[in-house]
Amino acid sequence: MISVGDVEHLISAARILGGNLLRQVPFFTGEEKKRKKKEEEEKNKNKNKNKNKKNKNKKMKNKKKNKNKKNKNRNKNKKKKNKKNKKKNKNKKKKKKSKNKKMKNKKNKNNKNKDKKNKKKKKKKNRNKKKNKKKNNNNNNKKNKNNKNKDKKEKKKKKKNNNNNNNNNNKNKNKKNKNNKKKKNKNNNNNNNNNKNKKKKKKKKKKKKKKKKTG
To answer: Spans of biased composition, class Basic residues (predicted)?
Structure first.
């Protein structure tokens, strides 16, 4: 298949060949020269245009090729980076999971130990509470017993003192009564004697007076 470039090339070749043939003709005029020159210039212009177009196309092709290569490399690097990041994230996740598991186990262990410790502490506290309660009960019982004994003793002492006081009072009262009775009897005796003596004296006086009167 003949391309556009080939056709243009054939036309150019035909023109050159035609020009060369015309130059050999004796009646070749100046207008033809001008036309030929113009054609030559057009030809060169087209040639340069085609060359520039070709270079431009080549440049664009290379640019596209480089761009594609760059994109390919960038995508490759991106893929590589993504793969690396994926691996990194996977390892990070794995590490985090492992760390979390470790921390969870540690926390569970600590909680277990804490519970164990608290249980032990509670047991000890209850034991001590029970012990102290028993001790307090014993002390209270002892105290109550002592107080009871003390009260009993005090009561006995009070009773004894009351009895002693009553006995002493009765004794003193009896003694006083006896003394009073004795005193009273003595006074009575004295009064009786006095009265007797008085009577006797009176009688004697009366007798004496009677005797004096008679004599």
So the answer is: 46-147, 172-186, 196-215
- C-alpha gyration radius of the chain: 81
Q: How far is CA 66 from CA 36, 52, 53, 187, in A?
A: 43, 20, 19, 167
Q: Is 166 helix (H, G, I), strand (E, B) or coil?
A: helix
- Non-local CB neighbours of 36 within 8 Å, separated by 6+ positions: 19, 22
- How far is the CA of 65 from the CAs of 50, 73, 78, 126, 176, in angstroms? 21, 12, 19, 87, 155
pLDDT band at 26 (very low <50, low <70, confident <90, very high): very low
Mean pLDDT of 46-64: 85
What CA–CA distance (Å, rounded) separates 32 from 24?
13
Contact 55, 31 (CB under 8 A): no
Q: Does residue 211 carry a pLDDT above 50?
A: yes
Asked if the model's pLDDT at residue 99 lies above 80, the reply is yes
CA 198 – CA 43 distance, rounded (Å): 212
* Alpha-helical regions (H) of the chain: 4-23, 30-214
**DSSP one-letter string for 125-147:** HHHHHHHHHHHHHHHHHHHHHHH
Looking at residue 21, its pLDDT comes to 53
- Predicted structure pTM score: 0.31
C-alpha span between 162 and 151 (Å, rounded)? 16
CA distance 56 to 75: 27
Three-class DSSP category at 95: helix
